[in-house]
Amino acid sequence: MKKFLWSLSIVSMLGLASCGGGSSDEAKELLQKILNLVGIPQSIVVNICQDENRDGICGVTELQAEVSINKGDTVATIWNKITNTAEGKYLLETYDPTLPLLLELQDTGSEHYTDKFTIPFNGLAPTEEEKDLSILQAMVDAGHLTANDIDAVKEMDNQQEFYEVLLKDFEINLNTLQEQNLSSPRAVLANIKEIAEELKEAGIADELPTKIDSCEDNDSCIEEAMEETIIDENEVKVIQDSETETTKELVAEKTFYMYDAESNAVVELIFNAQADAFTDRGDTENITIEGDRLTFNEDGDGSYTVITEATDHLMFTDYNSDGTLDGDGHKLYFNRA
Questions:
Q1: Could you identify which of 30, 90, 201, 251 might form a hypothetical disulfide with 271, taking C-beta atoms 3.0 to 4.6 angstroms apart as the criterion?
Q2: Could you tell me if residue 318 is left (phi over 0), alpha (psi between -120 and 50 degrees) or otherwise beta?
Q3: Which residues of 108-128 are buried (b: 16+ CB within 10 A; e: fewer)?
């Protein structure tokens, strides 16, 4: 089977607009960088994008891992955008490689977690030509590990087996956190932090790689060496309490501005200091925040809203009790436009 490298190039019109328009981009140099998947099967990659608005989601106008069909393209030029390459390598064509990267995954064959989840990475430094995309690199980018901490893993004989267990444990933890009202992407961030701390305690820089290599072909031995990367009930409670406080801090004693299409007006939402109520055009709504989820006390139907933070707004995404999306959500801006 042929393996293709998908060129990440600017989508016609919308993509150009999202990068600030034609004139400013023309003055910049279009750069080519290489992204390498490490320890993550290419078969579970849904998307790779640059997170221009830093909301943790691959938006439709953001540079994405797909072939763009631009005005004037012919069949020949479209196919020239697809380059045969080794598995797990992606070409990033961008005017700004320093923008954060998002790796969207879905492991439909997993026994533990089959929903989509997104792992965030820092962008490339101006002098970098390549960047690894791995769970360990995400921990380095988040500041939980150092580059030196993961050097020994790169020299392991059982590197592939290490990453297989790491991905499995990562998915087990996501499922556990989801059950405690922590949704992606916040659950991913909490998961990255917790596993990094456990790996550091286990000696990821030296002792753990040596121990795993000594297991040779014994999979049970490798899993036992990494058993602490699976979070327990006490750790889940600590994470949930921490995430609840973080979410409350995002809204407590703050005023947000939201466009209301029905009235064609900008409305104010004013949250109280306890983050358990807000006023909307004089009406008070009582709410409960747990993890990254907000529920309206009056509803009682199992529906909920997931809160995520972007550069200039909070995104309130509504879900039905069965986890399906309920509409397009709402953007609550920090400042009146």
A1: 251
A2: beta
A3: eebeebebebbbbbbbbeeee
Letter string b/e over residues 8-18, b meaning 16 or more CB atoms within 10 A of that residue's CB: bbbbeeebeeb
Structure tokens at 208: 């753990």
186-202 vs 233-251: helix crossing angle, rounded to 10 = 140
CB 287 within 8 A of CB 305: no
Chain-centre distance of CA 109, in angstroms?
A: 20
Strands 255-260 and 130-133: unpaired
Estimate to the nearest angstrom the gap between the alpha carbon of 104 and the chain centroid: 7
Per-residue pLDDT tens for 72-123?
555 455 434 434 345 677 878 888 999 999 999 999 999 999 999 999 999 9
> Position 8: which residue type?
L
Reported pTM:
0.79
DSSP annotation of 149 reads G
The DSSP bridge partners found for residue 84 are 4
Supply the DSSP symbol for 64: B
Strands 313-319 and 304-309: antiparallel
pLDDT of the residue at 55: 82
- With contact defined as beta carbons under 8 Å apart, do 71 and 15 qualify? no
Token pair belonging to 41: 């099967």
CB 288 within 8 A of CB 294: yes
Structure tokens at 134: 């791995």
> Is there a cis peptide before residue 185, judged by omega within 30 degrees of 0?
yes
Angle between helices 159-179 and 207-214 (to 10 degrees): 110
